[in-house]
Amino acid sequence: FREFYKERDVIYEERRMGIESSPAGRLFMDFINTAFVAHPYKTGVIGYPSDLKSFSRSEGDAFFRRNYVARNMAVAVVGDVTVPELQALTTRYFGGISDAPAPPPVVTQEPVQDAERRVTLEDPAQPLIMIGWRVPGRDDPSFAAYKALASLLAGGDWARLNKALVKERKIAVELQGFAGFPGEKYPNLLGLFVVPATGQDPVAVERAIYAVMDTILAAKPFVPAELEGYKVRVRAQNIARAERNSDLTDALARAQIIQGDWREFFREQERVQALTVDDVMAAMRRSLIK
Question: Which own/partner pairs from 96-105 qualify as long-range (CB within 8 Å, at least 24 positions apart)?
């Protein structure tokens, strides 16, 4: 950490530009701090300005020594290599990494939420809406259904909310759906990010979102063709990832760290292809509630 304080100040400026100086960033922080009250997900990756200003080199060194140890890491290698070559490179580049015990796991769990939480940020800026619902982590067998649900609701031009609110009614200009927010390792959020059209009341747009979802639940559930389209897109994306060494190493290492087994990258594709409309609708009824 030869230039620790200079680099720390760079991170401080990045946070200031991305959050304090950005209406969307300020809304994001209010949203995430409202959604999580106990779990570390509420803090964000780099914490708060006061954390950064008071973070010393000795604290950074202690954090590094505690967390950047061999028992807390995964390395994936993809390509035309042999085991002897790999062993030599591993010894050369990773041999000096500490073999100290892994840091303790996160034990704090987000308590059960029994009421809607809402935050309104008044700001002279483009109106934005963020909505989130609680879903399990990536290691849960139902997580694939939630990923599909996010895509079918607001994953692109094909999605129900995009068709209804952007194409047909034109009361929104952008809708994005996501699952695994802000991270996938622990129970997280399935969320929507919505940009209302000019002159539209965000509260009215929010009501329109719920109306479309109510219609899906009550009268017009997703159909097999919609789910098949999602499966084709996921299959194409993952074939592309598997064809690029850098993307495949990233996918395998993430699966090892998040799910405890690199093979889960391939098993997850099997779970996606095995999904049924009933699985997706059950996930929606279970979690997308007020």
Answer: 97/68, 97/69, 97/70, 97/73, 98/65, 98/68, 98/69, 98/70, 99/69, 99/70, 99/71, 100/65, 100/66, 100/69, 100/71, 101/69, 101/71, 102/69, 102/71, 102/72, 103/66, 103/67, 103/69, 103/72
pLDDT in tens, 221-244: 999 999 999 999 999 999 999 999
Cβ atoms 70, 96 nearer than 8 A: no
User: What percent of the chain shows pLDDT beyond 70?
Assistant: 100
Is pTM, for the whole model, over 0.85?
yes
Burial class for 12, CB neighbours closer than 10 Å (0-12, 13-18, 19+): middle
Cα separation of 207 and 261, whole Å? 42
With 0-12 / 13-18 / 19 or more C-beta atoms within 10 angstroms meaning exposed / middle / buried, residue 185 is middle
Quickly list DSSP for 97-147.
S--PPPPPPP---PPPP-S--------SS---EEEEEEE--TTSTTHHHHH
Q: For residue range 145-187, what is the model confidence (pLDDT) as tens digits?
A: 999 999 999 999 999 999 999 999 999 999 999 999 999 999 9
Task: Indicate the residue type of 161.
Answer: L
